[in-house]
Design goal:
The complex is a heterodimer of chains A (214) and B (224). By secondary structure, chain A is mainly β. Chain A has strands at 2-4, 7-12, 15-16, 19-29, 35-44, 50-53, 57-62, 67-76, 80-90, 93-98, 102-106, 111-119, 123-125, 130-138, 146-152, 158-165, 174-181, 187-197, 200-212. Chain A has two domains: 2-106, Immunoglobulin-like; 111-212, Immunoglobulin-like (Sandwich). Chain A is built from no helices and 19 strands. In chain A, the strands form four sheets. In chain A, strands 3, 5, 7, 9, 10 and 11 form a six-stranded mixed sheet that branches. Chain A is globular. In chain B, the strands form four sheets. In chain B, strands 3, 5, 7, 9, 10 and 11 form a six-stranded mixed sheet that branches. In chain B, strands 1-2-4-8-6 form a five-stranded antiparallel sheet, with no helix packed on it. A four-stranded antiparallel sheet of chain B has the order 15-14-17-18, with no helix packed on it. Chain B starts with 11 loop residues before the first strand and ends with a strand. The chains are: A mainly beta (214), B mainly beta (224). Chains A and B meet through strand 1, strand 5, strand 9, strand 10 and strand 12 of A and strand 5, strand 9, strand 10, strand 12 and strand 17 of B.
């Protein structure tokens, strides 16, 4: 069980097939105070990938050291991330708790988009070239996937940076691909990497770069 | 090669579709969002599953997130309506799966932020202040930037780090100073020292009392 005080939490299983399936959320109060009037929700960080069905759960009291198991039904389309929220009362005071993202593998994709990083200092400068690196990890033998890099600029233009065809990848093998952008305005750039298997978008990662005037 | 085309009027474009999501700010509770789509290619788009997707269903939950359009002919536009349950500002995007000139295609927009209710401030960004690939045992500081939307004070800013082994560490927690509308303030966390190799997830949360009004993440790759 993972811990974010005052709760231990775990969601099982960690991988499911596409379609409608149930998962179980285990919550344990590891604090010293009663948690009461709990509105417990499982939330999706990309509803295109995974939707959570139903209204959430209500738990009237979770005493110290008490564990509850709560079922949630998912409609799963692609691998994605979920997180848990609790809104309720702790020792008579309102409180909000949430878990970090919990990855959920859906189906058997041939590869995953493991990460996207802009290889720059936190604040970049107008006119300075930035390299963005995406890591693709093989989950079964694959080749010829399509990796797209795009940038959403401060003025709202959505620019294609590069489209790459990936090389053959074995199970567990990582391959790094890069694209470059030279910002010409100050503000927040959002960099996107999309991984496609045919027309199936099987990965989406986002990175932010804040660009300042030179 | 670029698929980008300039949008006309208020519509943005990502070939082969011009699009607009409106309105950009809504009240909390149940309300509606409209998506305008226009086929700007020379071929018909058919059998379209048009989805409005939330990037945080706690913030914005879309009641029936998929609509079907049998065809969008060249030059044709359509407006679709989606009911949403909105609690906080959040990101959404549109996806379309169907056929373009008879061939299967997938299309999606970048994320767009929808402002919900009278939020007092927004969390603009969070960054780990480090070299692009820092090594273990180097001190890292996190920086978060807030922008005031209406006069706000006493918000709580929390910095958390999720380690590669899955532990959540509360790095720092601070009360913010008075923020006037449009004013920007930057806060730095106490330093933390990553000890593991792998990807750390950096979280910044802003709370107005017990309501979480902002959450942003950054990623940090710790090399050997």
């Amino acid at each position: 069980m993972a811990i974010k005080y005052p709760l231990e939490y775990e969601m099982t299983p960690k991988s499911i097939d596409a379609g409608r399936h149930w998962v179980t959320l285990s919550l344990k109060n590891i604090g010293t105070q009663d948690l009461t009037g709990l509105d417990i929700n499982l939330n999706s960080l990309d509803a295109y990938s995974i939707s959570v069905l139903g209204t959430g759960s209500y738990v009237s009291i979770l005493k110290p050291n008490e564990t509850r198991e709560l079922p949630f039904q998912l409609s799963a389309n692609r691998t994605g991330s979920l997180y848990v929220t609790l809104d309720g009362w702790k020792d008579g005071e309102r409180f909000h708790w949430e878990s970090p993202g919990i990855p959920m593998t859906v189906g058997e994709e041939v590869a995953e988009l493991a990460s996207l990083f802009a290889m720059t200092e936190p604040y970049s400068v107008v006119g300075e070239r930035i390299r963005c690196e995406a890591t693709v990890r093989g989950r079964s033998a694959s080749e010829g996937l399509k990796l797209e890099f795009w940038a959403d600029t401060p003025s709202g233009e959505f620019e294609e940076l590069a489209i790459v065809e990936t090389k053959a990848l074995d199970v567990g093998e990582d391959a790094i691909y890069s694209a470059e952008i030279t910002p010409d305005e100050d503000g927040l750039y959002t960099i996107y990497a999309y991984l496609y298997d045919g027309v199936r978008r099987i990965g989406r990662e986002v990175e932010y770069v804040y660009v300042r005037e030179a | 090669m670029s698929y980008q085309r300039a949008g006309r009027g208020n519509m943005a474009a990502k070939f082969p579709i011009e699009y607009e999501i409106s309105p950009k700010s809504i009240r909390g509770g149940r309300t509606w969002l409209a998506i305008s789509l226009k086929n700007v290619s020379e071929d018909a788009l058919t059998g379209l599953n048009v989805r409005l997707n939330s990037l945080d269903t706690y913030a914005i939950d879309i009641e029936e997130d998929a609509k079907y359009l049998s065809a969008l002919e060249p030059g044709q536009g359509e407006e679709l309506h989606y009911q949403v349950a909105a609690q906080q500002s959040g990101g959404i995007y549109v996806s379309v799966d169907g056929r373009w000139a008879g061939e299967p295609f997938h299309w999606e927009t970048p994320s767009r932020r929808v402002v919900v209710g009278d939020q007092v401030a927004e969390l603009v960004s969070v960054f780990a202040l480090s070299e692009p690939q820092p090594r273990p045992s180097e001190e890292i500081t996190i920086e978060a930037t807030l922008r005031g939307l209406i006069t706000a004070s006493g918000l709580i800013l929390e910095f958390w780090v999720e380690t590669p082994s899955g532990e959540s560490i509360n790095v720092d927690k601070t009360a913010t100073d008075l923020l006037n509308p449009g004013e920007v303030a930057t806060y730095k966390s106490d330093p933390f020292v990553p000890e593991e190799r792998g990807i750390y997830v950096i979280h910044a949360y802003v709370f107005d009392d017990t309501t979480r009004i902002g959450h942003e993440t950054d990623y940090l790759s710790i090399a050997v």
